[in-house]
Amino acid sequence: MNPKSDADNNPCDRHAILIANTLDAVDALPVLEFASSPQSFPALKATLVPGTEQ
Amino acid sequence: MKTPTGLIAQAAAFLRGEVSAESATRQALSRLEAIADLNALAALTPDTALEQARSQDLARLKGKPLGPLAGVPLAHKDLFYRQGRVSHCGSRIAAGTMAETTASVLGRLDKAGAIDLGTLHMAEFALSPTGYNEHYGHGKNPWNSDHICGGSSSGSGIAVATRAIPASLGTDTGGSLRHPAAACGLTGLKPTHGAVSLAGAMALSATLDTVGPLATSAQDASRMMDIIAGEDRADPTTAWTPTLQHESSLGEGIQGLALARPRGYYDEELDAAIASALDRTTATLSGAGVTMVETTPPDMGANNAYAHLVMSVEAATLHSHWLRTRPQEYADQVRARIEPGLCYPATRYVEALMRRGALSRQWIDMVLVQADAAILPVFPIPVPSIADTTEGQTSDVARVIAKLTRNTRAINYLGLPAVSFPIGFDATGLPIACQLVGRPWSEPLLLRLAHAFQQTTDFHQRLPKRST
């Protein structure tokens, strides 16, 4: 039996191409606004509740 | 008397006394057993189902108030927990897990009088768009059993398409309701994130997970949504969720609505027969008074990337112990979808959440513009064979699977509602589907458009070879 290579053992090496492609795709976006919040989507939803649209 | 196959029709037949709940339950159990070879089932619970049914029959005899699904037998994806019942979540690792609480959506269906027949097949930990499951067998398409049934709510798709049951709950994190709806010729609704409680359902990626119905028509899906949607204290993501009227709004008609047909990204890699079916669908809706507009979507690269990043990070967090201690108990294809989440920096994950609102707004502004909804393909390719998604070169299999989710997974990151329904059949007799996507909380409007289409076409009524 052959010993496993580092790439077999390390998931980050094993998926290196996918991870690099993912980060490249999001790096193409404009710089993140300083006022951004992780609650950005709930905030959007709140503005679109029927009867309260802005 | 033979039970009608539709959800609302079954409920009406019970209310009129034309069929007893016990008879309907026994018939549904027999129909489910008859499709076991399609790998639709996880575990049926006939004794408790018949007990529930007899209770509904007694309530009717005594003239007690009955719920909107009284006496209707249903079964659901094997990730909705019920206290004292075992769930496998399609896995070996979680097999035999006894639930300590009951999912809020199951509680709501119980209150509506529905009978719970047991649990249905699903992809391992809800991680496959095809119905792939190495442990319990791949789900098979009732229209052609050599083809995928769509996943991960695979058993729900098979059981409803064969008319064994009239509707079923599934979940959708990257397309897992829309895929079986598209592959099996059903109507499937992926709600706005937060419109339906996730409490008591297996989490894959709480930011992207949604719970919704698979049914044979938009009208039946609307009845299900009226019951399961709305605020639930057990799930804070539903806080401030508005009360939406799904079934009663179907009658409002679609005259004067506007529908966007985004080109560019959504035309790429699109099969000619699917493109033609989309053209015919827009013509039908246009004939019913809907204004069509062509629009251009934003670059979908970042949206798709964030959908993958958020899902894999959240799933890897939940699975990190098992990934370390029991990695060999995952199917390779499943583990490979979770593992990358171990590798993304925390800042990238938070960045995905911080950009979500703006990217959702951008998609709405560019795709919908002033329109009420957009029409998109679900699959850009014909429903593939099981062999196409499991055999041959790994890169070829990965390419096919990536195509199946290219039009669905970003919609979960964007948090938008979508309804998928059949709009034709290809030359081999397999269903073709579209999805209507709208602004948050537009589920009633999306169902209204699908219902109007189904009033003038019969694609949703056609039965697969393996119907019961």
What does this structure look like?
- The complex is a heterodimer of chains A (54) and B (468).
- In chain A, 52% of the residues lie in helices and 0% in strands.
- Chain A is built from four helices and no strands.
- In chain A, 15% of the residues are buried.
- Chain B is an alpha+beta fold and 468 residues long.
- Chain B has helices spanning 7-15, 21-34, 46-61, 104-111, 154-161, 178-184, 218-228, 272-287, 301-325, 332-338, 346-368, 394-405, 409-414, 443-456, and strands at residues 41-44, 73-77, 86-87, 97-98, 115-120, 140-141, 144-148, 167-171, 187-190, 211-215, 258-262, 291-295, 373-377, 418-425, 431-438.
- In chain B, the strands form four sheets. Chain B has an eight-stranded mixed beta sheet with strand order 8-10-9-14-15-13-11-12, with helices on both faces.
- In chain B, a hairpin with a 2-residue loop joins β6 and β7 (144-148).
- In chain B, α2 (21-34) packs antiparallel against α3 and α5 runs parallel beside α6.
- Chains A and B meet through α2, α3 and α4 of A and α9 and α11 of B.
Furnish the topology, listing elements before pairings.
The complex is a heterodimer of chains A (54) and B (468).
Chain A: H1 6-9, H2 11-14, H3 16-27, H4 40-47
Chain B: H1 7-15, H2 21-34, E1 41-44, H3 46-61, E2 73-77, E3 86-87, E4 97-98, H4 104-111, E5 115-120, E6 140-141, E7 144-148, H5 154-161, E8 167-171, H6 178-184, E9 187-190, E10 211-215, H7 218-228, E11 258-262, H8 272-287, E12 291-295, H9 301-325, H10 332-338, H11 346-368, E13 373-377, H12 394-405, H13 409-414, E14 418-425, E15 431-438, H14 443-456
Parallel strand pairs in B: 2-5, 11-12, 11-13
Antiparallel strand pairs in B: 1-5, 3-4, 6-7, 8-10, 9-10, 9-14, 13-15, 14-15
Helix pairs in contact in B: 2-3, 5-6, 7-14, 9-11
